[in-house]
Queue: 4 jobs
Job 1
Amino acid sequence: MLIFGPVTSRRLGQSLGINHIPAKTCSYACVYCQLGRTYPMQVKRESFFSPEEIDRELTQRLRQLRETNEPVDWVTFVPSGEPTLDLCLKKEIENTKAHGLKVAVISNSSLMGMEEVRDALMEADWVSLKVDAGNDSMWRKVNRPYGSLNYEEMLKGIVTFSRRYRGILVTESMLIKGMNDNESEIADITRALSSIRPKKSYLMVPTRPPAESGVERPNAETLGQIVKQVRGVCPHEIECITGDENEERVFVTDAVVYDILAITSVHPVRESTLRLLLERKRVDFSLIEELVAQKKLLSFFYGGTTFYRRNLE
Ligand code: SF4
């Protein structure tokens, strides 16, 4: 299940996903993680799947998509963990680009202090880096990084990357009520964003069931003040995303169960989205109930909505 989608993404259009990291293999344990808690955490880069295996699955999926005239704008490395932990990331990006496709990578930034990680990301056309905190202590509260990681080293690495990178660099900052949403924390995040100088910074809020209970989005008034504060300092474009990306256009083949488990491995999907998707395939919703009974899917209730996520344990 290395390839999923394409999914309609607000930022990238029709994006085919590559999940090239074993479930929940991450250097962070973010309080808002939609995949649950990270066990165990790691910072050692490894080769998890062979680049050839990933390319074989990608080639097969692209063939299916061509047969059904399904467009693909981007291929995104957005696994159920941190993509830069993959030692073969550079090779995998090169292989993907050889198909004539644009490549995006969504990283948590934690390993940006490493030259080989920056070097691998140089190959991508679009890179998104996480900046949820502008200082070490908030970073440890929100992202709960692996012990040996260092905030200053990471930020220095991001700035170094930004100065050399020729593709599109964006940042994303998750705002959490009562944690990093006050004026002083936002001033620190803004300082970090100004030093990075990305093309665009996305301010986000939790929209799916988080790893820790009590993680909530700031209220609308606070969000408005935050956007004003950040825009007042940063010369680059700032966009606040308060809803989910449009996931109604998730593409599934006739291998419905396989595709549903692939997409729910990387993020929880709303019940309404799954209903639409099954309707298109003329499959009854009881399929989802069966997958829950078999413990292949887990259901969560968050923000008044039921979500389903693959059981990653
Ligand atoms: S949100 Fe991303 S970076 Fe944070 S723990 Fe989850 S997978 Fe890792």
Note: The mean pLDDT is 93.
Job 2
Amino acid sequence: MKLYLNEVSSAASRVRIALALKGLSVETQQIGILGLEAESRKSDYRRINPLGLVPALETDDGLLITQSLAIIEYLDELRPDPALLPTAPVERALARSIALSIASEIHALLTPRVALHLTDAFNADSQSTTAWNRHWVGVGLDAVERLLHQNRRSVFAINSIPTVADIFLYPQAIGAKRLGFDLGRWPNISDVFSRLETLPAFAENAPAPRK
Ligand SMILES: N[C@@H](CCC(=O)N[C@@H](CS)C(=O)NCC(=O)O)C(=O)O
């Protein structure tokens, strides 16, 4: 298997964390994602992921899987131990709900291609783009904080072991800190984050800071 990624990518960090939790290693290829001329925007990479996003996973049969949640669930089915989704149907749904709330309602609004379009189409400068990012992270994590509230008897977001909810939360919380947020604004997120950052699978696979 081969994973296309970039070290600053929050979405690729999710897959790296999942691989580390499962003790799996795969071939990797870095794809540039920053700037107008980034490799991710070229036709060669569009053949791998038509959306021009990382991560993408190429299976041993040469099939291409995009979307970090789909990739992580595929890995979870290939190597079920440790399980990254809880067993109980309602907990599985809650874990996916938190993962998707982060991926679809927060992270999707913060990607380089969105920032480039804000600049290109609306003349947004870097201050406006940062204000945009802070807005979506603030309202998004306010909501995730409330989603977490109903599970606060657990050690991690949903369960006593990390699930996809934690795998999506960790890089997003790091992104929030890099945007200047104090995680103390979200006591549940802060509590889960402080446990996750002690786990090497998480700490060693955080998204690298952008230079
Ligand atoms: N929903 C996708 C998001 C993938 C994504 O947005 N990746 C970002 C990096 S974190 C990317 O490749 N961005 C390139 C761009 O915006 O041009 C997933 O979960 O895999």
Note: DSSP finds nine helices and four strands in the chain.
Job 3
Amino acid sequence: MSFSARILDWYQQHKRALPWRETKNPYVIWLSEIILQQTRVEQGTPYFFRFVEEYPNVTKFAEAEEDNILRLWQGLGYYSRARNMHKAAKQVVDLYDGVFPTHYSTLLSLPGIGEYTAAAIASFSENHAHAVLDGNVFRVLSRYFGIEEPINSTIGKKLFSKLADELLDQHHPGEYNQAMMDFGALQCKPKNPDCSVCPLRVDCVAYANSLQAELPKKIKGKKSRDRYFHYFIIEQDGKVLMSQRPDGDVWTNLFEFPMLETANALSIEDLQISSEFYELFGNSTIYPIGGLQKHVLSHQNIYASFYRMDYSGVDLPKKNSWNYYLLGNLDKLAKHKLISSFIERHF
Ligand code: SF4
């Protein structure tokens, strides 16, 4: 039996019943694919249902306020994905009269859609013959063929892409792509794949040479940068001061408490005598709440400290993005995880 026949055969017996597999609607497939990037299926599924219910078609999505999309997205992280979805939806409405495209090259021209997502939408919706290449597929190919080339090197990307195209079942590209992804997720798992029941075992290079733990290979990314954020909780008459994050940094446009970033970790005493603090808050007194929180993002480690501030007698700086919000209305603001978890714990 050929490689693809064995994968398809395995899929018939083991495929996952996922709600977005019930449809050929490219808009719904797009929603599911973007939501599930770097998110576990169990975590992403409720988001998928909420988005489909709130925005049943791409026109409704395009017409939505960005704040509402971000609020619905809250908890998934990688907020630029939600913003790109909004841009893409507007583009679909403006350029294609609200008809979601299914051609690979057109899909690639939309914000936030890369090769993987374009291949997934094109093949799942219309059976266009484009092979998907995600972490699951890389793993299966690398192990089965014993490929040592790193999956994120330039040569590796080309090599795996060519191989995936050659193996693609031209008659059932959509089903084959889903089968490869499930095979990687359920059978050829990252840790401890159960090779004893694998239909590829007889000629799998990794199995024959006990290389499962070594493959696939990956070049290590650049070192993460450490950042130190100090948040100040300033309340007045049942309201709390909130700030909206600027463009060009993490969490664009999301809400948080007024914040000072310092180049190094600072004790509360050092923070209070720093010129940056004095410039913003004069001689205000602050009291720590909770301990230091570490929040890991791709390429950044954020170390966050929270302080309650006694602001009386101080003219708070007039910053455009600072506004008071009723405590009861905080849940209407789109906030990043660090802030929403803090509010859950302390308000
Ligand atoms: S035999 Fe093991 S390593 Fe090889 S493809 Fe199957 S599960 Fe993966």
Note: The CA atoms of residues 201 and 207 lie 6 Å apart.
Job 4
Amino acid sequence: MDKLTGKTVLITGGSSGIGLASAKLFLEHGARLAITGRDPDGLARAREELGSETLIIRSDAGNLAEIAALMQQVESHFKRLDVLFVNAGVATAAPIELVSETQFDDIMGINFKGVFFTIQKALPLFGANASIIVTTSITNQLGSPNFSVYGASKAALRSLVRSLALELVGRGIRINAISPGPIATPIFDRFGLPPDMAQEIKSGIEQKSPSKRFGSPQEVAKVALFLASEDSAYVVGEEIVVDGGMSLL
Ligand SMILES: NC(=O)c1ccc[n+]([C@@H]2O[C@H](COP(=O)([O-])OP(=O)(O)OC[C@H]3O[C@@H](n4cnc5c(N)ncnc54)[C@H](OP(=O)(O)O)[C@@H]3O)[C@@H](O)[C@H]2O)c1
């Protein structure tokens, strides 16, 4: 339980779901931790779960000024960063005719542009042997009706991880991605769909999945721990799929 002892870690979107489960696991492994989110109630709940040693920062992952301020806070608290888990993301569903420019910009701004600039603004903080992990999604390769913008935002991340892997590896910075399939987190309640429709989607996914169930955030967190730690020292530019076999169909 000491894979991250002495390491400083920032998890964006660490107040819920995959990010929160990873935060807990990383703490168990000795990390010094900072997390972000937007919703004050979610951040307050995260503080209760993660304890007073964790730096909890309200920061909008799609706002460049807030990203810059975030990095200043992390630097003044930790001096340097060893692991950056760029995990904050949003998913809203809509058929193409109903996607507004605002919705398009919101998804791309948080899921792609925000990730790009979070990595850019974190670069000066990295010490030797740093690890960046980006949360993508299996929708970046599958066709996902009504999630076209979301899938495209995650496909952009897949490309970004490959390019930056080569750009950064010479500086001692590894970057990899985790590509989750259906994971039981609050994100399914945030699709903007009526509850019965959201439930219908969930049941359909369970039936379709080769594993006949959703994954747990803890199952994704274990893969994040692998990518954060020295166990993955020679893994560069990879995207690890955690989906119970869903994307093989
Ligand atoms: N669950 C799945 O099935 C699944 C599958 C594939 C990929 N993913 C990806 O996994 C990542 C985590 O999702 P999750 O399932 O754990 O969902 P979640 O429980 O809804 O958590 C999302 C986290 O991101 C934060 N966040 C969202 N927008 C933000 C913003 N603009 N600024 C700061 N924080 C923001 C949320 O904080 P607030 O609540 O405060 O906004 C929350 O902490 C996302 O990138 C998602 O696309 C999830």
Note: The pocket of NAP is lined by residues 13, 15-19, 36-39, 42, 60-62, 87-91, 110, 135, 137, 180, 182-183, 185-187, 190 (CB under 6 Å).
